[in-house]
Design goal:
Shape: globular
Distance between the termini: 79 Å
Strand order of the largest sheet: 2-1-6-5-4-3
Number of domains: 1
Number of helices: 4
Structural class: alpha+beta
Largest sheet: 6 strands, mixed
Number of strands: 6
Helix content: 25-40%
Mean pLDDT: 85
CATH class: Alpha Beta
């Protein structure tokens, strides 16, 4: 019986030790930091630095560009956002939540806002699915209600 008591004590010790082990902390998705930096650069209106976060040519789905996938160069992206800033000088995006998906995708929910020089302002909820490959955005699929309602 003593032989089995020793085994039982060791088994209980092992179970207790395992139960007290700290749960592993999930590793942060590496794209979360990249996306946060992306929005900081957007809010600084440094369009040169902003577009360097994209591949030389990236695929966009954006209601402002049409209904399908549109390839945009960095220069075209600079032009688009420079023109947007002309209309809304204080345009900014505020992240609501970041949803890492897999090794190349992250979904970001955010609110874009700004005020035109005539005092007209807007607040627009937006959702973007980013594809990030080799440290650059290769796809920017953005969804928002552009109906004006």
């Amino acid at each position: 019986m003593k032989k089995y008591q020793h085994t039982i004590v060791l088994a209980l010790f092992a179970v207790t030790l395992h139960a007290c082990k700290q749960p592993s902390v999930p590793q942060a998705n590496p794209h979360e930091a990249f996306v946060k930096q992306f929005f900081q650069v957007f809010n600084s209106h440094d369009w040169q630095a902003f577009t360097k976060m994209y591949a030389e040519t990236a695929d966009f789905k954006d209601p402002s560009l049409g209904t399908g996938i549109v390839k945009q160069s960095r220069e075209q992206t600079i032009k688009k956002y420079s023109e947007l800033q002309q209309v809304f000088p204080n345009i900014k995006d505020e992240i609501v939540s970041i949803y890492p998906s897999d090794s190349t995708h992250v979904v970001v929910e955010f609110v874009s806002s700004g005020t035109a020089q005539d005092g007209t302002s807007f607040r627009l909820p937006i959702c973007t699915i980013f594809t990030i490959e080799k440290g650059l955005i290769t796809k920017d699929f953005t969804y928002f209600d552009n109906s004006g309602k």
